[in-house]
Amino acid sequence: MSQPLSADQLAFYREQGYLDCGRVLATSAVDELRAIIDGFVASARKENVGLSAEAGKSYTLFTPVFTVASRYEALVLQNPAILDILESILGPVFRLLEDAMFFKPANHGAALAYHHDNSYYGFPLDVPAVTCWIAIDDSTLDNGCLRFVPGSHLQDTPHEQITGTVLTRAAVDESQVIDLPVPAGTVVIFDKLTIHGSGPNTTDRPRRACNIVGVVPTVDSKLRHFDDTLNPYLRGGPAA
Ligand SMILES: O=C(O)CCC(=O)C(=O)O
Question: What ranges in the chain are assigned the alpha helix state H?
Fold first, then answer.
């Protein structure tokens, strides 16, 4: 592994629960990913596309993208720069937990409510899991960049039971929220407990992004069945 993150960056991640890792993907890779997302949206495959809470306004293309878009595997899952970043947080052995694409259409892409991803996973707090989010377009204040509550990963914030993904209003102090606009090709990482969301897209261009989530499978069989096809080892593992 190279040293993708400095000691200061690692310290920031551990304190704040998120980190802007800078531009990691080349323009050609970003262009290819943009075409993959557009292809999904154009075909609107029902089994891969979920509508957000505001129906018709925002798409999430659920895991596993790489099984239906092989270039995604090459560009993201096997991208050494991305894996080096994950390794610097997770150590030498980790699997893919899931991957997704996020599409906010021009003019009416919906906001994504504040949540943390462990509301989906339900892992014990000591299971390391990191989301690696990649901007496929410049993400801005106007088109729905990511928002974070810094330091929120230091506790397990409860979610409302209604949807399982929306935090109680009382849980988010808007005065603590930071917006994180970044250029296309940027990688942003965050902890499974970090409260985050994204704003609406009010511009006349789409805002596209994708992610992969890496996990250290320390508790495989007790908590979650890791499938060797859907959750390949990204680094290390039995075959390494
Ligand atoms: O891209 C977005 O707007 C949201 C991304 C997100 O919530 C995630 O990667 O967990």
Answer: 7-16, 27-43, 70-72, 80-90, 118-121, 220-223
